[in-house]
């Protein structure tokens, strides 16, 4: 009897020590600290509506085992360098824009074509779905967590309205990237390449006549103070991704990897898209408040612009096919997804 009692007490003591030790370890274990870099202002909707809630939720869901610190506004590097910063391990995660590096992600530019993507939410889900089907090979060395886009880019003019293709001839219009530069030339304009923070000054000093932008930028950068004509044209959307360093990803426990994927992917794509759409509406309201004119192309003019869009898109397909890439398949997939997400 005494022997049994001694064995019971020894076992109880051993289990208690393990429990106390495990509890102490759980309380003192150092969390996994991840650096997330992006190039936008800490007041930008992507920071406040997407990244800040993501950092908070990953910490909550992992019970403090993961802590994400956000570095906004090019604190750690220039916007165009963010993909390489992830590959090289300078940061653990980063937002990157494929369109800032001409020729590096050729098939991804299919999303930037004038195919009538109706909203940021649609563009974001289209891009994420397209990535999973066709674009994975364009992103070696990183774990892509999600993709999203801003809303449709339109033509915004300071002094001269655009109602016809003839009105575009010779206009100095700021272009956000190589694809849009080619499209503006197809439409007869003289594109200018400059960072978006420089656009206000260029418009104010008359160095630029206008810009192609999403309406969200009209409010974000106070362009409503200078722009008086907005021509609805759905020229493009710009895809942006969030990537993680491959080694860092591989070093995460499987349950944390699953939590990250649950919070990113289509979920973050939709969250970002909805946020951009909300800010597009705020941009429209800012334009209306200063009594700027919002111009819709006439049905006849829409047909003429669509013909130019087709010429431009056909050239993109031919260029991709000439490089041995499945340009036709990817383009057809984008058009199919536009139909799916426009319903």
Could you explain how this protein is built, in words?
The protein has helices spanning 2-28, 45-61, 82-87, 120-135, 165-168, 178-186, 199-204, 215-220, 246-250, 254-263, 265-289, 299-322, 327-341; strands spanning 32-37, 66-71, 93-96, 142-149, 153-157, 172-175, 190-193, 210-214, 229-236, 239-245, 293-296. It is globular and about 65 Å long. Strands 7-6-8-5-9-11 form a 6-stranded mixed sheet, with helices on both faces. The longest helix has 27 residues, at 2-28. The protein has 343 residues and is of the alpha/beta class. The protein contains 13 helices and 11 strands. The protein is 50% helix and 18% strand. Strand 6, helix 6 (178-186) and strand 7 form a beta-alpha-beta unit. The chain has 2 domains: 29-103 and 120-148 and 239-278, 3-Layer(aba) Sandwich (D-Maltodextrin-Binding Protein, domain 2), CATH 3.40.190; 153-237 and 282-312, 3-Layer(aba) Sandwich (D-Maltodextrin-Binding Protein, domain 2).
CATH topology of the largest domain: D-Maltodextrin-Binding Protein, domain 2
Mean pLDDT: 92
- SS-derived structural category: alpha/beta
The number of helical elements comes to: 13
Helix content: 40-55%
CATH class of the largest domain: Alpha Beta
Please describe the biggest sheet, giving its number of strands, its sense, and whether it closes into a barrel.
6 strands, mixed
Indicate the overall shape: globular
What would you say the CATH architecture of the largest domain is? 3-Layer(aba) Sandwich
Helix and strand run: HEHEHEHEEHEHEHEHEEHHHEHH
